[in-house]
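Lay summary. Proteins are chains of building blocks that fold into shapes, and those shapes determine what they do. In this project we predict the shape from the chain. Here is one chain we studied, written as its sequence of building blocks.
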Amino acid sequence: MKSAHTELKDKLYSVIDSLYIDTVMYQEMWMAKIAKRELSLSDNDYKNNQAIKYQLRVEFSGSGFIIRWLTCKFVRNNSKVIRLTKAIAIPRNGMYSKDKFKDASEWELALILELENILGPIRNQLKHLMKCHISLRNASKAIGEKFDAIDIKHRVEIPTASIKGFKEKYR
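And here is the predicted shape, written in a compact code that computers can read:
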């Protein structure tokens, strides 16, 4: 028979996993829109103007995951072009504001803000669910019950979608 803490943990993981699946779906939607946009640019426009300046990333973090934006820059190092990314700090309220994306073009900013209206509440809910996970682990420890945390990478399917993959699909 499962203990109450184990049942709560299973339900908690179920909600976190569901949020992850939804988030990956939104990330794939973002990738598809970026791929369509890049394919619509002429070769000359594409070479002279970087298509996107920001990247949406969903990363595993222990029993949960992180949703964050990164700035993307392509720099030339001798004859090689290198892609540099830098994470934009996640705000305390869980919602990135418009001023965090100063270099975004008009269409990219609109897409980012549209996604943030969806992902901000997910990010905030996830933060509180992870606090519940910590409290549940501490409660189990306090009564001497074993608490086996399961990393999210062992609970969900790892996505393989990419902008490049969407481009090939749309060609």
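What the prediction tells us: The first strand starts at residue 54 and ends at 61.
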